[in-house]
Each structure stands twice: as C-alpha cells, then as structure tokens.
Write a structure and sequence with these properties.
By secondary structure, the chain is of the alpha/beta class. The chain has a single domain, classed as 3-Layer(aba) Sandwich (Rossmann fold), CATH 3.40.50. It is built from four helices and four strands. Helix 2 packs across helix 4.
Amino acid sequence: MPVKVLFLCTGNSCRSQMAEGLLRHYAGENVEVWSAGTEPEPVSRYAIRAMREIGIDISKQRSKSLESLAGREFDYVISVCDQARQSCPTYCGTGRTLHWSIPDPASFNGDVQETMLVFRNVRDGLDKRIREFVTEIQSPQRPRI
C-alpha cells in the first residue's frame, strides 16, 4: 500500500505545493500525496516556475483547504510552516506528524530575479528534505504507524 502524506502550510501556494510535487516526483507510486492550507491561496507562479526549472510541472496542482480533506487518514502529516503547525492540532492527530520550518518565499518583496532566487532556495531546501524523507519511508525499518 502506498504511504499517504499530507503537507500543510498556511496558503498552500508555495512550500506545500513544491513539497507535494517533489514527493510525487521522487516516490512515484509508493506514495499518495496531498497538500492543503489553513488559508488557501492560488498556487504561486514563482513556485510553478521554480519547479519547472528542475523538470517538475506543478501547474495543474490546485490549492486546497484543510477542511476539504476532512475524514482522510494519513500516515504522515508534515507542516512546512510554523503558523500551520499551530493551526492543525486536530488534523495532526492522524499518523505521524513532522514539522519542517521552511521560510515563506511568498512574503519576500523584490524584483523577479531576486524573488526567483528566494523561491529556488526554498525549493532546493525542500528537495533535500524530500529526498531524505523518501529514503526513510522506503526503508524496511520504517517506523510503524
């Protein structure tokens, strides 16, 4: 059975969307992955562009509210921002919870080149964490849920 993973952040527009795309890319059929936000906003064009640069297309992904996933069970719930971590005590009760404090690239104000640099840095940090996470969940000694 695939491992079921939910990424949470506030807007579900940048970090959680990139994490969803990366995990789907690296783990393929071994995971079912979703992302959601406590206050969803449209997927950031900068996130789409940053992911496209590494060959991952998230342009068809859509922001979802945390409530839209009510009733689903997850093996892992991973918050990627501090605010979402504080806002999801009931949802985080399912499965194993992890918290990755990732800076919000959407809060950066700069020109396109500067903004893209910030998004690339966040993408690359997530890429490293996702690769480590995939190794963990594919390990025969994976913690039982």
